[in-house]
Amino acid sequence: MALTVAIVGRPNVGKSTLFNRLIGKRLAIVDDTPGVTRDRRYGEASLGGLSFTVIDTAGFEDASDDSLEARMREQTEAAIAEADVSLLVFDARAGVTPLDEHFARLLRKSKKPVILIANKAEGHAGSAAALEGFRLGLGHPLPLSAEHGEGLGDLYDALEPIAADKVAQGRLDAAAARDAQLEEVTPLDLDEDAGDDENLPEPVAPKHLQLAIVGRPNVGKSTLVNALLGEDRLLTGPEAGITRDSIAIDWQWGEQAIRLIDTAGLRRHARITEKLEKLSGADTRRAIQYAHVVVLVLDANDMLEKQDLTIARQVIDEGRALVIAANKWDSIEDKNEALKKLRERIDWSLPQVKGIPVVTLSGMTGRGLDKLMGAVLGIYRTWNKRVGTARLNRWLADVVAQHPPPLVSGRRIKLRYATQIKTRPPTFALFAAKADELPESYHRYLVKSLREVFDLPGTPVRLILRRTDNPFDTERD
């Protein structure tokens, strides 16, 4: 059984820096601004020979009302309840503060192991200041520098016995469960070969569908993710721009394993002035680059603004499959007219990708979630579609017969043959003499025909022209 470790502490003590250090990636956004992290984020960490799940949490605020800080505190408390051990991080240079003491009291009430981390303790001065952590009554503070990677050996020594206890307890629980199961089985039910599983097939790890939820700020992305998961996993509220990091959550829809990624809202570059928002935007664009399917969430009361189209074009340019979700649909009075206008605007503004799936839904009530996931899985299959070379060349012969390529310098361009060179998105290579002289209009004609004949709606289709270099070709330049 894997160990789960929560990194907790007041804002701006270096929790996300430690999280990134343990997982070996710059996954969490790090900035000098206090309170950058708001949702809890999971990662697979490795320290020496020890592997464990680590949770990055929001900076703890002593608030219990309906404010954003109070909702962030609930996220942190959920991480503490889930974890086997908490790392309480304080700033060795700033010393112990009243909020650190308040947090220490809360962790003692959890009755789970706590390791006290004195971060930013690089150098002799920092190590000496770390001793102030004894005031918290949580044992010996470990001097550590997450930014420079110092003190990780001491952290390993502190985590290793807790991990060993976790493994031992897991074995005891498994043995007890097997004993209980055997007690329920009568002797007549026992089979001498029941324990022989050498001939059983090895389990196949499911492939994750990377599903990114993107859109402008405050269109309901996190609310939609919570509705899909069936729990308040992500921080939501009326405030715009609550989500700052891209949060990845492993999830299952039917038999399909999905990695669901909630992202920060994207605004126009001209409106972005703060460094933190630039970092959040870069994180969202990186999520789009690595996604398989992207759901662009629109506010049904303010649909398909210029920024929505900018995001959609970015998704298409990256070659990702796109689904458009009109959220807050329950607030629309004339739904038929609104849907008609939306589809017309999409066809007019995104002509390079015909047939983009459009789903109307409400993340608040859960209406339309089945249709959304049906559209996601359908476009995912299209995005992975492969067409045989024989079918492609029959198509090429037909399309050339219907509309031959134009003349160039008095000679007609010969289209030799076509083949699919990759999927995700469907990408085809067309070999031709004078390929670089084929007009753009004819290229668009071929792509449109490919989309229609081979049923590739809503997904980017790429057609790469390659020149044939046949020494016996009399039309060769």
UniProtKB/TrEMBL annotation:
Residue sites binding GTP 2 per the record: 215-222, 262-266, 327-330
Keywords, alphabetical: GTP-binding, Nucleotide-binding, Repeat, Ribosome biogenesis
Domain EngA-type G as annotated: residue spans: 3-167, 209-384
A Gene Ontology molecular function term of the record: GTP binding
Sequence positions that bind GTP 1: 9-16, 56-60, 119-122
Biological process according to GO: ribosome biogenesis
Superkingdom assignment: Bacteria
InterPro entries: AAA+_ATPase, G_ENGA, GTP-bd, GTPase_Der, KH_dom-like, KH_dom-like_a/b, P-loop_NTPase, Small_GTP-bd
Family according to the record: Belongs to the TRAFAC class TrmE-Era-EngA-EngB-Septin-like GTPase superfamily. EngA (Der) GTPase family.
Record function comment: GTPase that plays an essential role in the late steps of ribosome biogenesis.
Subunit structure and binding partners: Associates with the 50S ribosomal subunit.
HAMAP family: GTPase_Der
Protein name, entry field: GTPase Der
Organism: Dongia mobilis
